[in-house]
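Final paragraph of the annual report: two paired records, presented back to back.
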Amino acid sequence: MLKQNSALKELQKSIGGLLAVIPLSPGHWTLLSVLLALAGGTAIAFYNSLGAGLGLFAVAAAFDLIDGAVARAKNQASEWGGFLDGVADRFVEGIFLISFMFYPLPVVLIGPEIWIALVVFLGTCMPSFIRAYSDHKGVLSREKALALGGICERSERLLIIIAGLAAGMLFNMDYFIYGLIAASVLSLTTVLQRFLEIRKDALQ
């Protein structure tokens, strides 16, 4: 795993060095990732073009990696850049999920729009909110708030959703809904885990 992380960092460093010559700031790369996500969401939501939409989202994800690499290559890494990148990540994830509210999906127990809304609320919004709010209210120190974990954080959530979507495209879109259901349940579990950990620390 360490070798893989090291290789990924070296690859990002090389890409950042190559792209640093382009007259775009790291913030511009971040903005481009959001614009590409909007284009991808439009393709899925209004044209039912899943292939084109996912292709645009894939490029948006690549640009999300590029902005940090360019920032380091240009020695422009900053807390503001990190904040902007995090906000953009949530916009891209939200656009991706919401675009499927307009795509014809099968009903599994309840309408697919409800599962998507639950993933957005329980996954995209609540874990980050609980972390930030515990720090804002002084219930946890900033270090403890940042250390809050859970069974299904952003990387795991996106992996589950993408795996479900891949299975859905290969076999049946029911699998995509199953992925959304799993992401919803595990995200709720993460929210409860963080809540209980904060409560335990606050009552000590």
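The closing record of the year follows.
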Amino acid sequence: MISRNHALNALQRKAREYKHWEQWVKDNATEANSIDPTHSFYTLIDEAIDQLSPRQKEIYLLHRHERMTYQQIAVHLNIGRETVKTHLESATRAISKHVKLQLAVTMTAIHLLL
């Protein structure tokens, strides 16, 4: 009897949490894309790229968007290949840190709502 009651209570709690989550999504969905996880993820990455230093941003975009190699970027910008590598490593760390931080904040907010 006790196990049955615990199981029922757990199911009821999960149902309430799901209803709260659905309401939160409705309240915070200002447009159709705002609940698309892919869109949100790319928005986070774009925000992180915008926060990079001008040189890191330039090198990152040349490498990721223009698909240039380290050597091509070095020649294009008249800098050393190792400098390109250092800037890309720093940019990647900064982007990862920003995305992880924002995801942690979002997960904490969702957890507090439940």
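Residues 42-113 form a domain with the Arc Repressor Mutant, subunit A fold (CATH 1.10.10.10). This concludes the annual technical report; the extension proposal builds directly on these records.
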